[in-house]
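[Structure tokenization] protein backbone as discrete codes

[Encoding] learned vocabulary of local backbone shapes

[Begin record] amino acids and matching fold tokens:

___
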Amino acid sequence: MTTKLEDKHAGNGDLVGEGQPYLGENYQENGKPVANGRGEISVKQEANGTRGMPRKSLNMYSWQEIQKHNQKADQWLVINRKVYDVTGWANKHPGGSQVLNHYAGEDATDVFRAMHLDLDIVKLYLKPLLIGELAPEEPSQERHKSSQLVEDFRELRRTLEAMNMFKVNPVFFFLHIAQILILETLAWLIVWHFGSGWPVTIFISCLLTISQVQCFLLQHDFGHISIFPNSKWSRLMQKFMMSHLKGLSTSWWNHRHFQHHVKTNIYLKDPDIDTGPLIVNGYLKPAQNGKKKIRYINYEKQHLHFYMVGLPLLMPVYANLNSMEMMYLQKSWGEFAWVISFYIHYFIMFGPFYGIFGTILLIFLVKFLESPWIAYVTQMSHVPMRISKEENRDWLSAQVLTTCNVEQSIFNDWFTGHQNFQIEHHLFPTMPCHNYHKVAPLVRSLCAKHGLQYVNKPLLKAFGDNHQGLEEICSPLVGCLL
């Protein structure tokens, strides 16, 4: 159902007039807005915390109507019962247009809260996109979702905010940055003092590998704005870590990673499970490849493909080529300059000892060594878990069913950059990683209350399950090819 707006909104979703309402409006105890009895909501102008002249009435929509607007050229979504037309804004969205498109026609309240740290700034962008609200008789989320589970999760978040679990410990991240820079400096001092023989080269390659992996893990935290409250500083530090110290595009990483977060393990929406024809994830892609009669790849051995190709070439080949491709296609010359600075600083540090060709070999040796480490850290929490088509689940269920944790220990925390608490990270991406272990018992308790399996396993078992998952996945495809 839809009621008419007194002044129709433009096709791009902008309302006529100024001072549109935004997130933070008051609701009745049942989460529904106060209606005037005539199918319309009277909205007041809100500015600087005070209410002034009466505003024009907004359309009210049913879920049935909203769910029709789920195409790239027609994208509506719901946040806190407010309906937004984000079609014209999608291409300007800092997190990428695909993130919005993946939630078109759905309730995006919890994912919106999870992915944004400073809501006051984001609200300013939402105001001109507002086109209406859910009708009073409509639930606050789609009817197939458990309202109790959704409310319990939101209460958990409020509890964590009250506990200051989103507050950063600056010393923790200072030590993380210091570790990276000290390891790189130490590698240079060793080769300067002992020369560039093979034993020294192998040793400094190990030091640089550790530095590079920890740099990758730290840039991930900067990308989620979980360290600096100011997003500009976070983006700048992410560029320094990812582009200057690692030689990769932050835009490429964020474009993929944000999609992975909002639609984890969802076929055609999560880029991390789209590994091309050589390795397939889940049971949908193998069956699809089987129907296409892709017989030239022996999928019964795809776990071996992972070891022979996926592990060693993820960073030196796949990541580098995809990063360069995105910068070229988007003409991101400023970011390209950041990436070039990585090679310049390596040539300055190690060129006098190895020459140009030798330094290039050193760079790719380090990328070759870091690749298995990064591959396991990023894959072991998701490959063995549920991979499916779009199911439009609530935020808690969507993340818990597709994610598993690795047991806490000093080594596991360091080895994974605290990404062993992957469930907590996916539920609260903007939370500083040093607080995950404090939050985990509360998340586990909530999962138990609602019958969700909270998977937590030893590190070596996580490695083994990753192998087993790849080995078992191939069976549907083999059946299709027989």
